[in-house]
């Protein structure tokens, strides 16, 4: 069994790390360079950087900030926000990103996934999906969760894999920032439908929530979290120790 991954997420707006609840009520929580360095030192498995307002504001991700962060860490680094072309992705990879996360642009132009695969390979492509339940069914949103689409979560994930995605990062908007736990059932269903790794996002409030998530087989391959790490209620070393004690494979 592959080791499960623990991934802190830095949501960035105006050059600061921010956090909200259900994609609203955004507040600043710290300097992204300092936080990235700390998570790297704590032996996070990867780091995700999302420029959450880039698409909504019609601009590109801050490549200079990506470069500053990449110099401070020695773990895989995924960057997303405002990526809408092969050229955008290339700029971020040159700045130090190891993988590219695409969301709104992929929904608008699914062929972009194919183009990125052709240029960089599937291992560089994380298709991020933000979805909210409507009448009991997850509906895909874009532009930082502000626009609903006609796409459904599971169908879009399957299509993204066929087009060349190397991983799926699914955020449940209903769970995001609530600290009430992940929607484990949704990740189990995704794992049954796709053959690529799944990163779970939205809802981590305790070590128990992550234990619960990563105990499901099939299920998520990685737990992404923000608030519990940013505010210091859980540290990555203590989390990994608990996971190991629960016989969940992790890198120590």
Describe what you observe in this structure.
With 252 residues, the chain is α/β, with parallel strands linked by helices. The protein is 35% helix and 28% strand. The chain has helices at residues 32-41, 63-70, 86-95, 104-108, 111-120, 153-163, 184-193, 207-215, 227-230, 236-245, and strands spanning 5-13, 16-21, 24-30, 47-51, 77-80, 99-102, 125-134, 137-142, 147-152, 167-172, 198-201, 222-225. An eight-stranded parallel barrel has the order 1-4-5-6-7-10-11-12, surrounded by six helices. Helix 2 packs parallel to helix 3. The chain is globular and about 45 Å long. The chain starts with a strand and ends in a 7-residue tail after the last helix. 45% of the residues are buried. The model has no long low-confidence stretch (mean pLDDT 92).
User: What is the number of helices?
Assistant: 10
Strand fraction: 25-35%
Flag low-confidence runs.
Answer: none
> In what order do the strands lie side by side in the largest sheet?
1-4-5-6-7-10-11-12
Provide a quick synopsis of the model:
By secondary structure, the protein is of the alpha/beta class.
Attribute tags:
252 residues, 10 helices, 8-stranded parallel barrel, alpha/beta
